[in-house]
């Protein structure tokens, strides 16, 4: 008898895995596409920041070739940062209106053009123009790529997008310095080769982004969003204020190592090889990337406070290099500064991005980067000007003292919200008991 007649359920042919649920292959395909887009957007952030730091090992070559002063170097460095700020102020929220894909594609093509201009630069003027275009393209792409990562957050892995937004830039800065240093040492015409390679990479990324799926809903008001503004929603405003001093301290320290770090190495050890000059910023950025990864599961407020407290020994070690301790102290100071940079950047971004809605992401990231790059560029320009009058040694001492004081003041602002929460609970015990009773009853 058949299974049906005997009362035994009929057996059906075994279906391929996944075919029992309608639409499962399509679901898996969408998941793979989202994962690929996430990796692509992360690689865009890495490449953007690699290109931003690639000139650091080349500054001594430019100084020798064109007779640039320390002030000239900091002006070239800061032209990029200030152009980036302008782009963040005007295009920071553009991808919230126009979509991530068109903003990223256009910005990456502009970035490729900037690399071509850098490769053909023949003096401080053309170098500055190229860095200006690079800054505009980076500013437009950074907030769009960072917001796209948040759009692609996997529900089962919360926090991954914020972690990537923190680790990708510092990893990119480390990669850019390392690649540029190696090309200076081994490649012919390093001031051309490094930019030619980056131009090809950005062109390939622009093509790849054009074929990805849009993650942001297109909304009206794209032209209106180009008006200079900083759109920080109330949910993130207090966090940006409380973390602002810490962010300024570590980014100012990063700006010093990026622009004047090679000159400091040459002052401490005139006979050191060329590669040692650029690698001091690699030490900072690589340590920052490792710190971001190592502290990814630690309370963000705790990591931010710890990073602030690390700035004081970092500056003390760096200054000791000018007083006989030599290059080991300078490099150790750069490593501790990198740990401070990574801890503060990671903690601040995690606290800032946690409560955001989709339509607030790009604008809030833009506001964070505006604060960061102002802190990186303006003190570096001032340091370059001071070096002309007082020398690099005296300027380094003043710079170190100011950043250390800022970092020492930051923990008080960071601890204030926690103290206020504790005070609120003590002031209203009945409310706390009521809330506890409700939780128990549920």
Explain what this protein looks like in three dimensions.
With 442 residues, this protein is mainly α. 78% of the residues lie in helices and 0% in strands. It contains 14 helices and no strands. The longest helix has 67 residues. The chain starts with 23 loop residues before the first helix and ends with a helix. The N terminus and C terminus are likely disordered.
Unreliably modeled segments: 1-13, 15-19, 420-442
State Rg: 25 Å
Q: What is the H-and-E element order?
A: HHHHHHHHHHHHHH
Shape: globular
With helices defined by DSSP (H or I, 4 residues minimum), what is the helix count?
A: 14
Helix-strand category: mainly alpha
Helix % is over 70%
Counting DSSP E segments of at least 2 residues, the number of strands comes to 0
The biggest beta sheet reads:
none
Distance between the termini: 55 Å
Mean pLDDT: 81
Strand content: under 5%
